[in-house]
Amino acid sequence: VLRHAGPRGQLPWVTREALAVLQAHDWPGNVRELENVIQRALLLCMGDAITRDHLIFDRPSMVAMPVPAEPGQLSNIVQLSEFAAIRETLAACGGSRIETAKRLGISERTLRYRLAKAREQGEDLVRRISA
What we know:
The structure is a single chain. The protein is mainly alpha-helical and 131 residues long. It has two domains: 1-58, Helicase, Ruva Protein, domain 3; 65-131. 59% of the residues lie in helices and 3% in strands. It contains seven helices and two strands, in the order E-H-H-E-H-H-H-H-H. A two-stranded parallel sheet has the order 1-2. Helix 4 (74-92) crosses helix 5 and helix 5 packs across helix 6.
């Protein structure tokens, strides 16, 4: 948490329940997967505590992620990961684009561009959240 918290005013700490979830996970990706989970939790956590609800593991996202049409292209894989991050953050923010952009550390304009790009690819991220 300390490594990835950045310039936050107040440092959030992991609750006992969240710590138990982290300890129970088998960590097939080892340290990298743990770092990814912590980074996501920090993006989603707006208060002083990281709870179980802030923990999003790589494996469930990977299962739900569609296979790219051209699996050899890194850009397709990165784009699908980006869409998944936007979808998860939109859901965590109750569909608020302003809050989603803040949590992702991007401008609202960039978020609008990425949402439009997702729609062009046939994935309406906003509609999936409101449905």
